[in-house]
Amino acid sequence: MAAPHKLEELKGALEALQEIGSIGDIEAENGIIHHVSMGTRTLGRLTAERLDANDAEALFDFYAEGLSEKARRLFAPYPLFHTPPHSADELARRIEDWKKEDDWTAMNLVKDKRIIGFALLKRFRTEQVTSGIAVRDAFHRMGLGSLLQHIIIGQARLLDLERFHVKVVSDNMASIRLHEKCGFKCTRILPPMYEEILEYLGECDRKNGNEPVDRQNVEMVIELNVKSETTKSFTIEDFDEAFGAGKGEVSALCGKLIKSLNFEYCDCSQETRETILLDALRKCDSAELSVSGPHRLDDWRRGWGEILQEFHALGGNVKALVPKDLHGGRPLRYKGDYIMPISSSFEHDFAMVFRHWLYKKYFHNFKNIYEFGCGTGQNLAVMAELFPDKRLFGLDWVPESQELLSSLSRMYGWPIEGIRFDAFNPDYTLDILPESLVYTSCALEQLGSAYENFLGYLLAKRPSLCVNVECLAEYYDENKLFDYAALKYHRKRNYLDGFLTRLREMEREKAIEIVATRRTGFGSLYHEGYMYVIWKIL
Ligand SMILES: C[S@@+](CC[C@H](N)C(=O)[O-])C[C@H]1O[C@@H](n2cnc3c(N)ncnc32)[C@H](O)[C@@H]1O
């Protein structure tokens, strides 16, 4: 007999889902769910049925016909699909063989006798309990993934499990969000043992004419009965310290924003730290990292071209402006160690708080802001909201950037002007207006050691203040492994080299004054792009 209150809990959890109209019977025996019937809002009546060898034909159809190749590659749980079954008979044999073990269960989600979703919970008598779900391609975006995962969570509760995990690819945001919504948290980046799928996804990127996305396999865990005591959260004081702000400053400038976001995280274990460091060093030794320089113009055009299309497809939604490499679900750098954020938008949210603080503190005195290497215009959009009266100029060598800016200006009425500008070969006919601030954010990084031409242009045009939010290699301590790995990555990518040293030299020569500079201590998995130097020409 299954504990009745746990079946009631499962019923309540399923009924709370948007797609569910009502839940009928839930049948369970010896702690294993056999049948759930439900009325849904868009798909009518569905049932979830425990898998049996008689279902092999329908399950084979689901796998072979219902899932795209990519979905099949991503869904390869042992022992049913770890190598692709070639026939329904082979699948039936695998199910029969698996029946000899007693630490697994699997459910089919059925509509009109056809399997439209499948979920399993396995190794539930071991420490390594894991689940996997898949939904027929034609039934995506209907809430069925959440439905199946909630059934599996209910199943795990019936079995009195304390936790179980799923493995997710770090840029599969749909899956990460689905699991976050169900209560899973990212706990660690997995050691390189599921490389095949990453290689396959890299090949898909290449086939689509893109650079392979930097992705990892990530473990997400749901704690079912115990409340985690290890979860921490960034406090206002942590932001003060990171930004180098005076006491109360961050609270006054961005307190409300911080309160509206989730800055919870867990420390990474020693094992995870070693895995990340090894992975970072291996990456640097491989040929997969792109190297910045004048040859990369077409890559940037392609990237921003895709964002331009997406921006219009979403009806001009500014969320589309966030570059794709800012995806969550993986560890971040903080104060000399790796942390695992709870929210998948942690880095994006940190960057947003940082921008608000920086812009409100340093930008308000100037009539015109020039952002060089402005990309999609995500920073200019924030400035336009904060300072409706300022003139904003976005400069980039990519024409798609100017198209994005003119769309932003047309659709939102923001005073933003896009100008094509190549920082390797500055155009001296472009003047900088009086009372102007020049800003760069992760843009000088792309110049490597070839920043002298751009610096010469700024010295000639004499803006009132320069604010560079860049990865400043001088702040890394080569004698610490954590920094050594970041520096190696930085150099391998040919990022900004020697800029802060050059500014310090110019300060000694009384050509400029450095107003403020800092390493915030926060960064993405491989390096820290939230360092800054603020300086003025004397
Ligand atoms: C990492 S993106 C940063 C974009 C933007 N600043 C942001 O924070 O979202 C780097 C930007 O620098 C631009 N860039 C690279 N080399 C450049 C050059 N030589 N002249 C002007 N822009 C350049 C790229 O096109 C891209 O938009």
N-end to C-end Cα span: 81 Å
* Helix proportion: 25-40%
Give the strand line-up of the largest sheet: 16-15-14-17-18-21-19
What is the 3D shape? elongated
Sketch the major β-sheet.
7 strands, mixed
Number of domains: 2
**What's the count of strands?**
21
Can you list the ligands bound to this structure? S-adenosylmethionine
Q: What's the CATH superfamily of the largest domain, by name?
A: Vaccinia Virus protein VP39
Proportion of residues in β-strands: 15-25%
Overall CATH class of the largest domain = Alpha Beta
Low-confidence stretches: none
Round the Cα radius of gyration to an integer and report it.
26 Å
Tally of alpha and pi helices: 17
What's the short story on this structure?
With 538 residues, the chain is α+β, with helices and mostly antiparallel strands.
Can you give a write-up of this model?
- With 538 residues, this protein is an alpha+beta fold.
- The protein folds into 2 domains: 4-161, Gcn5-related N-acetyltransferase (GNAT) (Aminopeptidase, 3-Layer(aba) Sandwich), CATH 3.40.630; 292-327 and 350-537, Rossmann fold (3-Layer(aba) Sandwich), CATH 3.40.50.
- It contains 17 helices and 21 strands.
- The strands form 4 sheets. A 7-stranded mixed sheet has the order 16-15-14-17-18-21-19, sandwiched between helices.
- Helix 15 (452-461) links the parallel strand 17 (436-441) and strand 18 (465-470).
- Helix 5 (144-158) packs across helix 6 and helix 10 (270-285) runs parallel beside helix 16.
- The relative contact order is 0.08.
